[in-house]
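Annotated sample (chain length 447).
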Amino acid sequence: MDTTRQDLLPVSGLTLRVSHDAILRARWLILGLGLIAALAVEVIEGHRLVDASLVAEVLLLGLTIPGLCWLLLTILARQLAQHSRAVDDLERFRRFTYQLSQYQDWAGLARFITQYPTLHFPVRRAALYLYDHTNARLEYVDDWETAAAGPAPLGPRPLHGQRCAACLAARSRLIHRCDGETAGAGWCLSLVFRGLLVGVLRLELEAGAALTPAQANFLGDLAPEMARAAAITLTLPKQMEHAQEVAQVGERREIAHFLHNALAQQLGFLHLSLDRLSSDGPPRQAELRREELERLRDVAGDAYRQVRNLLEVLRSDEPADLATALPPYLASISRRIQFPIDFQSSGTPRPMPPRLVQHLLGFIREGVHNTYRHAQASRASVSLEWLDRQLTLRIRDDGIGFDPARVAPEGHYGLAMMREDVAQLGGALEIHSTPQAGTELRFQLPL
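Output written by the structure step:
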């Protein structure tokens, strides 16, 4: 991953350097040839070397005009030299940012940041410090020194005293002199990301060396990239950990909703029914008892299937087919509660994520159970309308209906929970109901 100065010189920079050197040589050649040509012409024309006209023409033709060409070539050479340095710096900056992006771990990134200045600048030691915003101090992270730097390390010790104060106060300037106790001249790079000080890179120059203005400016250009890479590398693991915690909380919430809305109700029904069968005083007819036990068996079977479906959802991310799973699911509910449920589907069904299918089945179960318990309806209907980017689920009944604007929210806690769950899926729940005219729940979910 390390590179040398020669490695960082691009092909375009070499081309410009060659052109610059050729122009510098050519300007003297033109000046000399112009002078020789002017003298030769005058001699051929028969002028004597002591003639005043010969001297004047030689000065005009042999020095003035070639001299102007020499001046123009000199200006051109300087422009090419500046352009070549700019191209070199741009290529070095591009390669630096590319190398910086290759480090995903903090230890490798810190080592690269401290090692880079010692390879490409007259720096014998470099030390990296991170700023602790909680305690308002700089803490040592890593350092690198050249082989000839000597045995005394720059770290590990925190910056302190005037040096620490200067680094913190000069964060608006990305690079600045920072004179310390060491023999070599000291410079500091303030690593600032989004207005916050991430850290400081302290540079100790080689004995007798100095940074040129171009080198100082280039280091100042590198400082924001170092700060950005350090900030991202330090915060990414924390962000991933937070995202995992949020995902786990969401999964636990989904499981809790499922256990509350499905299994708790069914187990409660089983408990009440078994208690009623065991506490009936006079012996019941065998046929009625058999029918009651069959319903309890259906409830237990449905609870088992729901647990199995939940486990399949948690184990798999394969798409599920709602249109195929829904008819037997509705038949099971209808048989258990002895309530007719119609089903129809329009449009082209498509596979859906298992979690979304599980949510839809929960909405249907809750909606049908509310109809059976409260609507005094003779039947219910469930319909699916498949559109290009949306699925519309409707649950209708022919019951007594109600006025949604006048019903207290606490009277329909199940509807409020469904509305919250639909919103988390990016959809919407609309309730249309009129007294004595039935109710329709309309779920609109994006595909």
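Annotation: Residues 213-279 form the longest helix (67 residues).
Annotation: Residues 1-14, 149-155, 180-184 have pLDDT under 50 and may be disordered.
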